[in-house]
Amino acid sequence: MEQEQKLDVLFMPAGEIVDDNMREVLKLSVEREEEMMRTYLIAAERVEDEELQERLRNFAEGNAKRSRQLIDELNRFEVLE
After folding, report:
1. Cα–Cα distance between 48 and 12 in angstroms, integer?
2. What is the per-residue pLDDT across 38-58, written as a single tens digit (0 to 9) for each?
């Protein structure tokens, strides 16, 4: 239910998302990216197919990059305050 409330911000009219709401969206996005990254890495360790392992690791790497970008955006909000 808490996640649903956080996602409500996605349905707000343009211009109504305030900094606090945006921070929550970014934080939630970081959590999701990090969870997917962990899931892909665990799956890569458990499968025998080397090609699939590589693809899963690449997915995890993409999640790590997006996480860093989201964290950079969160930090930018703190600098602007």
Report:
1. 45
2. 999 999 999 999 999 999 999
C-beta separation of 38 from 61 below 8 A: no
pTM for the full predicted model = 0.75
Give the chain's radius of gyration (CA, Å).
Answer: 16
CB neighbours of 67 closer than 8 A, spacing ≥ 6? 30, 33, 34, 37
Contact in structure between 20 and 77 (CB atoms under 8 Å): no
How far apart CA 41 and CA 77 sit, in angstroms, is: 30
Closest to 57 measured CA to CA, from 67, 68, 46: 46
